[in-house]
Amino acid sequence: MNTKDSLKIVERYQNRAEILDQKIISFTGELNHPPESIFPLLCPVREADWIPDWDAQLLHTTSGYAEENCVFRTYDSDHKGGGTWICITYNPSREIEYIRVSPHLVTRIRIILTLLSPNVTLITWNKFHSALDSIGNKQIGKDHSADKMKKSLLTMLAYYLDNGEIIPKIKLAMHVGHG
Q1: What is the mean pLDDT of residues 128-139?
Q2: Which residues pair with 22 in a beta bridge?
Q3: Closest-CA residue to 78 (of 177, 152, 166, 161)
Q4: How many whole angstroms separate alpha carbon 54 and alpha carbon 48?
Q5: pLDDT value of position 21
Q6: pLDDT at 179 over 60
Q7: CB neighbour list of residue 4: distance below 8 Å, 6 or more residues apart
Q8: Going edge to edge, which strands form the sheet with 22-31?
Q9: Domains of the chain
Q10: Rounded mean pLDDT of 109-133?
Q11: Rounded Cα–Cα distance for residues 141 and 135 (Å)
Q12: DSSP label at 55?
């Protein structure tokens, strides 16, 4: 079999001048609510209810909310700028997974909910970045640590679930800290 063309592609990759970074950020935490209360909030529309300054534009959805193959766009909500997202796994009250493509990064986010007791859920959050160029390498280097990400996300979710409203930014800063 002639594999010279595919071997050229591999060789070009192996001899590339720039090494592109990948980074995994993972954490687990507990929320004092059942998965059925948490899961609907892991949606591009519902995140506006519990994440300060969150904004998304729905591009493709049947229901208007998260579902498999839901596509949406975000803007400059974090230091990596906007991106286009697709929901690739949708198992209600158990697991949701998104792929985000931005000009300089591809990010995969997988969130798993595990019921520990009637009102306690273990949330496992995995975020996998792949740089597409040198700017993406820099963006990966600036990404939050798992501890800060965990504190921030769990604080915002718990506050919303307990109070039914978005956490005031000053309260979030006090819980998570600065920088």
Answers
A1: 93
A2: 130
A3: 152
A4: 5
A5: 94
A6: no
A7: none
A8: 22-31, 120-131, 105-117, 95-101, 83-91, 71-74, 56-60
A9: 22-176 (3.30.530.20)
A10: 96
A11: 10
A12: -
